[in-house]
Automatic annotation (TrEMBL):
<feature type="domain" description="ABC transmembrane type-1">
    <location>
        <begin position="105"/>
        <end position="212"/>
    </location>
</feature>
<keyword id="KW-1003">Cell membrane</keyword>
<dbReference type="InterPro" id="IPR035906">
    <property type="entry name" value="MetI-like_sf"/>
</dbReference>
<dbReference type="Pfam" id="PF19300">
    <property type="entry name" value="BPD_transp_1_N"/>
</dbReference>
<dbReference type="GO" id="GO:0005886">
    <property type="term" value="C:plasma membrane"/>
</dbReference>
<dbReference type="InterPro" id="IPR000515">
    <property type="entry name" value="MetI-like"/>
</dbReference>
<keyword id="KW-1133">Transmembrane helix</keyword>
<dbReference type="Pfam" id="PF00528">
    <property type="entry name" value="BPD_transp_1"/>
</dbReference>
<feature type="transmembrane region" description="Helical">
    <location>
        <begin position="6"/>
        <end position="27"/>
    </location>
</feature>
<protein>
    <submittedName>
        <fullName>ABC transporter, permease protein</fullName>
    </submittedName>
</protein>
<keyword id="KW-0812">Transmembrane</keyword>
<dbReference type="InterPro" id="IPR045621">
    <property type="entry name" value="BPD_transp_1_N"/>
</dbReference>
<dbReference type="GO" id="GO:0055085">
    <property type="term" value="P:transmembrane transport"/>
</dbReference>
<feature type="transmembrane region" description="Helical">
    <location>
        <begin position="144"/>
        <end position="166"/>
    </location>
</feature>
<keyword id="KW-0813">Transport</keyword>
<feature type="transmembrane region" description="Helical">
    <location>
        <begin position="109"/>
        <end position="132"/>
    </location>
</feature>
<keyword id="KW-0472">Membrane</keyword>
Length: 212
């Protein structure tokens, strides 16, 4: 068992290395960087002159290592992850990436656990039901449902559900866990019901995809 685990871990290392290279290349593919965005914001919204905005953009680029060659930036990023567990700095949220992930990880794990339990309970139940009625319409229907859940991309199902909610049912609160009045409120039954109303599409898509 130990040998199997070590083999699996060792085989994952080159895959992670390739993924990191692809991710870094995609991020760097668009022209410019975040310092250019800061410069344009200072000029367009802050009323700064080009020289002042460019000076602040250069200072930001030097502070965050964006002035270095791309191979050096990549090695610094990977070296920080491997040696210090430092995944870098989020330019969008203006905080370390580890903090951004840490804020969302508990909710993500809880959501994944709920989806896994639902998919397991429903999948096993449907499997027993179909097996005891082999070649019947129930067996065929449940087999088709599980086949669709396994083959249809989840992002496509998500797009379809979002389209139906927004354009057919006029739902405006998309992408949040709670309604505005429950955002900072203490937990209550009403807040839990509001949470279910917001997350059911995610749970449904993940559960449907795991039924097979």
């Amino acid at each position: 068992m130990l040998r199997f685990l070590l083999t699996r871990i060792a085989s994952a290392i080159p895959v992670l290395a390739i993924l990191s290279l692809v991710t870094f290349a995609i991020i760097q593919a668009p022209p410019g960087d975040y310092a250019d965005y800061i410069r344009s914001q200072l000029i367009n919204q802050g009323g700064a002159s080009f020289a002042e905005a460019d000076a602040q953009a250069k200072a930001y680029r030097i502070e965050h290592g964006l002035d270095k060659p791309l191979p050096v930036q990549y090695l610094n990023w990977i070296g920080g992850i491997v040696t210090r567990g430092d995944f870098g700095y989020s330019l969008y949220y203006n905080k370390p990436v580890a903090d951004v992930v840490g804020e969302r990880l508990p909710r993500t794990l809880l959501l994944a656990l709920v989806c896994h339990l639902l998919a397991s309970v429903l999948g096993i139940t449907f499997g027993i039901w179909a097996a005891t009625r082999q070649y019947s319409w129930i067996d065929s229907t449940l087999s088709a449902i599980s086949f669709l859940g396994m083959t249809v991309p989840r992002f496509l199902m998500a797009l379809i559900i979002v389209y139906l909610l927004v354009f057919q049912f006029n739902v405006s609160e998309i992408g949040s866990f709670f309604s505005p009045q429950y955002g900072g409120a203490p937990w209550s039954w009403a807040k839990f019901v509001d949470l279910v109303k917001h997350v059911w599409p995610v749970v449904a898509i993940a559960t449907f995809g795991g039924l097979a």
